[in-house]
What does this fold into?
Amino acid sequence: VAVELRFGKPKAELSQPGLHYHWWPVETVETANIAEQLVDIGGGGATSGNSSGLMLTGDQNIVNVQFSVAYQVSDPRAYLFDVSDPEGMLQQVAESAMREAVGRRPAQDIFRDDRQGIAASVREIIQTTLDGYKAGLNVNAVSIEDAAPPREVADAFDEVQRAEQDEDKFVEQANQYSNQKLGQARGAAAQIREDAAAYKNRVVQEAEGEAQRFISVYDEYAKAPDVTRRRLYLETMEKVLKDSNKVIVEQGNGQGVVPYLPLPALQPKAPPPATTGGAQ
It folds into this structure.
């Protein structure tokens, strides 16, 4: 688009592409490209003489950042007449904003963990600053193309990265071992609890059964004390005399041929063990 000036003062309306005329030298024209444009910032090292990409992170590491800013003119009059060098100002503001965002974060964020978050933060800072300067520019996007340690310390930085990766691997292995042992211990504890619960139920049921049997015996005893007492006596004597040697003696004067009957003698005797050796 174009901005027409009359006696050096910009007109209110903008001239779109097409055929126009003006009264020279009373009227002049200034043009502005409103298409989206891209500016690349950073990427240089200390040896190249361009240190715009070298930045200090929040954890005191130096990184070399290369990024680009996509922008377009939103207010041609402000772009042409309010600032003297809009592109140069945009580059300085973008570099300053990137340094501010990187300086608040650890190096891992700019390397791989949170590039998108840093780019969004940088875009917001740039746009706020440009609006304050009334530069007439709108920042569409910020893209971090590369972030790496300086070439002078790249080898040492790689060693640190490998050490951190080894640390993460060992920690992961330790966590896996801990989880495995913890799972086994929990399984064993659950088994012990199940066994204890089963034992408890068995003992309780046996006790309840004994109590119920006692109550039933007591109920029968309450109904017929003499009969129950006699039955309990006979059952007890049966248990006591079942495995003992017994002799039956006839009462009275002993009129029979055999006054007593040795019951153990009536039991068949076990045969003697067979000898394996010869006769002596």
Q: What stands out?
A: The domain at 34-149 is CATH 3.30.479.30 (Tetrahydropterin Synthase; Chain A). Helices lie at 76-81, 86-103, 107-113, 115-133, 154-223, 225-241, 263-266.
